[in-house]
Structures are given as structure tokens and as C-alpha cells.
Amino acid sequence: MTVEVALRHRFGNFALDVGFHVQRCGITALFGPSGAGKTTIVNAIAGLVRPQHGRIAIDGRVVLDTAARLFVPPELRGAGYVFQDARLFPHLSVETNLRFGWRRAAERADQARFAEIVGLLGLESLLARRPRRLSGGEKSRVALGRALLASPRLLLLDEPLAALDAPRKAEIFPYLERLRDMERLSMIYVTHSTEEVARLADEMIVLHEGRVAAQGPVFDLLSDPELGALVPSHGAVFPATVAEHRNDGLTAIAFDGGILLVPHLDRPLAAALRVRLRADDLMLAREAPQAISANNVLAAEVISVHAQHATQADVRLRCGNVKLVSRITRASLARLGLAAGQRVFVIVKSVTVDPQPGTPHDAE
Amino acid sequence: MLTAAESEALFLSLRVSLVAVLCALPVALGIAVLLSRIRFPGRSLVEGILFLPLALPPVVVGYLLLVTLGPREPAGAWLLAHFGLRFAFDWKGAALASGLITFPFQFRAMHLALRAQDPALRQAAATLGAGPLDRFLNLTLPLALPGIVAGAITAFAASLGEFGAIITFVSNIPGETRTLPLAIYSALQQPGGEVEAARLAGLSIALALLGVMLAGIADRRLRAALGG
Fold first, then answer.
1. How many other CB atoms sit within 10 Å of the CB of residue A247?
2. Alpha-carbon gap, residue A282 to A279, rounded angstroms
3. C-beta atoms of A91 and B143 within 8 A
4. What is the tens place of the pLDDT at every residue in B84-109?
5. pTM of the shown model
6. What is the mean pLDDT of residues A93-99?
7. Cα–Cα distance list, A145 to A86, A126, B126 (Å)
8. Which residues of A touch B120 (CB under 8 A)?
9. pLDDT digits (tens, 9 = 90+) for A321-346
10. For the domain that residue B77 is a member of, what is the CATH number?
11. Contact between A91 and B225 using a beta-carbon 8 Å cutoff
12. Is A44 exposed, middle or buried (0-12, 13-18, 19+ CB in 10 A)?
């Protein structure tokens, strides 16, 4: 599964000029602040806008080539779309909404698949209802199911969680994680939320002022100090597993650089997790700290120091095979005299742990 | 209960109005869809022309029909020769006049219903594999249905009362073009016809009441069915 995108489009004062390839299953986040052109890009991939210049190929099939005056209409592109506002058809029941794309798919999925998606998204009890009688979170799940049942080769999601409050978001996250891990499907996920990228995405494309500023694995880019200015509350994200449930109420989780202790996690031993350590939550010490309240102190080595900001600096660290980043003040940087290659101790103030419900599959 | 002449006028009125509404409906729908999708300069002028039958005196509409589709006019003769369609002094002429006069009611209701639709839903349907005709039949049309039905019922009720255009274009022929309003007029022309006129007027009032009630019920049912 590949998506090739090259676009140039100008509207008003804003110029979009992007090019990227997506070459894997799973979630690729299209990340950037509002007005960075993210929605225009997915709308162009779906065929909902005609860019002034560009070429787009989905799975090797060219669906847009302005030089050759080629434009494949959206209904023939095989790209599913989950809109921020769900856009369910008000005159149809949930079940008929779900079957809308399913009935029209070139290769219609069988009834077992319909039941599977309904089960995966927990829609059994909603099937007879009208969209008007659904909550925001339920609408999002139906929109997701409706798009999936059209058997798309590519699924575009435009800020599917942005209109939801925190509890509703928490309700949808596990479903998106399950889709990522269990469906062999490429998803392009538009968001401006670092949290959503950290929790869901495998790869990310960072947009800045209408251009691609960076593209790469989330595990690398979120801890990249060079992108600190573009990614709010950046930090390290890496995989981990449940190692031990201790009798002091803490759970030990193992990662490729040591062990972290977190409050009891209701997950079985060896369960896959995704751990996030924000740059603001990591303190640095030259010597092993004694008698402190923090549960987690990791030994690490300084890879590089990035003091591009007036008062703050990002320190990139290696802890085993995992790269971390810590944001400290420039005053602290000067006092500690940090430089590449030095051994330091990382005091972890807070750990965010996201359970990973499915079994990750290999990248295609 | 009803005399032969009364039921003749009643059923003729119903037939004329039904044919008038059903024939004008697809035309009004087609124009309303085009106007809701295509932007062009002079669109408001076109919309104004479409509302003209409502503003013109019905007698003028009847006159215009007479001078274009009368049996000795070229257009009328052509229709008769090629399609065997005869409008002058025929109930079909009454239906044409009624359909024309009540066209704005249908057009207006459809126009509003289509303009109120969110184009975002059509985009969603397209990403789910629905082509233009599919989107029209399965999304645009069902969502506009309350407007279409409301417009048709209003037009039907208005058509039952049409007088000036009918009497001018197709005259007042018993059993052919003498609809209820024309029958009331004829009764009043006769000495001692007041009772007959009152009976026919009562019939018209009952019909109008029935129409308005039906329109209300249909509107509620459809809106509920469409999840509005």
C-alpha cells in the first residue's frame, strides 16, 4: 500500500507546496497547527478539492495529474474518509448508514466482515437508531465503521477526535488503536494534537507553513529537538511491556533502556504498551540523586544539546536503545556544563502509559 | 347527496388539479436542482421569471395561453398535428393553466428544501462510492422530500381554486372545463342559483380543509421518517 502526493495550491495568502510518500500500513499522522493545509491535503487525496498543480497516486494508480488533466472523481478513488463532523446521513438508520458504502464497494465485504466491524466498534446496540439520537462519540464510531465497510484501500481521517471532549476522546482511542493494529490498512490521520500522535501514530509528517518540515517514525520525530518548536509538548515515545505487578502497588514496565515504575496498571504481564515521557517532565542530574521522591531515575548519555531557544534548551539523551529528550533552562544547562557524551541521570517526574490493545503487525 | 352536475364538477376539479401538479412537479424539481447547483449571472432574474405566474393576474396567464396555444395559433396547431394534443376548450388546457399558475408554489418549496441541504453530506456519499446520479436519488431527493410533498399539496389546493386562467383559456364547458369555481360562478349567473352556489362553496371549503390537514400530517410523518 503506497500513497504518493505532490501538491501545489495557492489560496489567498497561503501557499501549499508539499510532497510525500506513505509506504506502510498503520497510521501516518499529518501533523501541524490549524491553517497548515492539512485538510486541503486529505481533501485533495480524496478528490473533494482540485488542487491547482499536483499528482497523486494511490497504490500505484494515478488519481490526479494536473499536467495530464487527469482527475478521478472521489467515488472512484477507493479512499475512505472519516470527517471531523461525522456527516452521517440523517434520513438513514445507523445500520443503513453503515451499509451505504458497503453496498457500493467494488469488492463487497461479506456479512461476517460486517458483523466483525460492528463488533470491533461496539455498534451492536446502535444499529436501529437514527443519527440524531447518537452521542458525539457514538457518531464518530459509526462514521469510522461506515468508512471501513466500504473496504477502502486508504482511510483518511480529518481530526476525528477534535470535536469531542476528553471523556469521549478516551472512549474512541481504543477503537482507533485496534484498527491500527488489526486492520491491514493505511490511514492518514490529520491532527494538531501531540497527544493523539504519541498515542496512535506509527509515522508522522510535520507540516509547517504549507510545507513538509519532517517525515519519519513517531518514535524518532517526537523526541527530535530540532522539531521542538513545531511540536508542542514534545517528548520521547517508545514501546514497552508489562514486566511485573509489585506488591507495593506499582507496576514495573520494561523498555529498551531499563525499567520504569508506574502506578498499578490493569494489564496482563507482557502486554504491549506505549510510553510517553514529555521533555518538560524529565530533570537531569550529573550525579546519582539521593533520597528523592521520584520513583524513576534512569542512567543516560547526552547525545546532543540544542540551545536554539532564548531561555530553554533541549538535551537529547540515549537510554539503552531509546532516545529521550529533556527540556531544561539555559541557566541549568550552563550550571551543569552538559555536553555530548556525558553520563547523566534522568529524573522522571511523570510517565504517560497508553495500553496497546492489539498485536502490532509488521510494516508492509 | 351530490347531484350529477356537482359530482361532475368535483371530479373534474380533482382530475385537473392532480394532472396539473404531477406534470409541473418534475419540471419544478429539475429547475430547482439546476438553480441550486449552478451559479451564473442573472440567476435572480431567472428566479423572478419563475415566480411571475404568482404575480400576474390569472386572466393574463389565460390570455397568454390563448394567444400561443389556441387552435389557430401556430404552436397550438403544431401540437395538435404532431402529438394530437389539444389544449383549447379541453380539460387538458385547464390542467395546463392550473399547473402554470401553481408552479411557483412547487418551485419555491423545492428550492428552499434543496438550498437547506448541506453539500458536505454529498461529499461524504462520494467518498463512500456514490456517483452523481446515485447521490441525487439516494441523498438529495429523500432529504428534499418534505419540501417536495409540501409544495405539491399547496399547489394542489391552490389549483382547485383556479378560475381566471381557466375561464379565459378554455372557457366554461360543463363536463370538460367547468371545475368547482367555474360551477359556482355559473350557478350565481342563474336566477335562483344561490343554493346551488352555497352547496358548491361548502364543498370547496371542505376540500380545502382536508388538503391543509393532509399537508400537516404528511409534513410531520416525513420529517419523523427523515430523522429531522
1. 6
2. 6
3. yes
4. 888 988 999 999 999 999 999 999 99
5. 0.83
6. 96
7. 11, 12, 16
8. 83, 85, 87
9. 999 999 999 999 999 989 899 999 99
10. 1.10.3720.10
11. yes
12. buried
Task: Tell me which of 2.60.40.1180, 2.40.50.100, 2.102.10.10, 2.130.10.10 is the CATH number of domain A235-355.
Answer: 2.40.50.100
Q: How many domains does chain B have?
A: 1
Task: Give the residue from chain B lying closest to A89, CA to CA.
Answer: B121
Q: Which residue is it, cell 510494516?
A: A363
Query: Helices A166-182 and A136-149, interaxial angle, to 10°?
Result: 20
Phi/psi for A145 (5° steps) reads -65, -40
| ipTM value for the complex | 0.83
Residues in chain B within 8 Å Cβ distance of A73: 126, 131
Architecture of domain A3-221: 3-Layer(aba) Sandwich (3.40)
End-to-end Cα distance, chain A: 7
Q: Which residue has the cell 404575480?
A: B55
> In Å, how far are A209, A302, A349, B177, B186 from A346, measured between CA atoms?
34, 10, 9, 97, 103
By the 8 A CB rule, do B196 and B110 touch? no
Residue appearing with cell numbers 352556489: B197
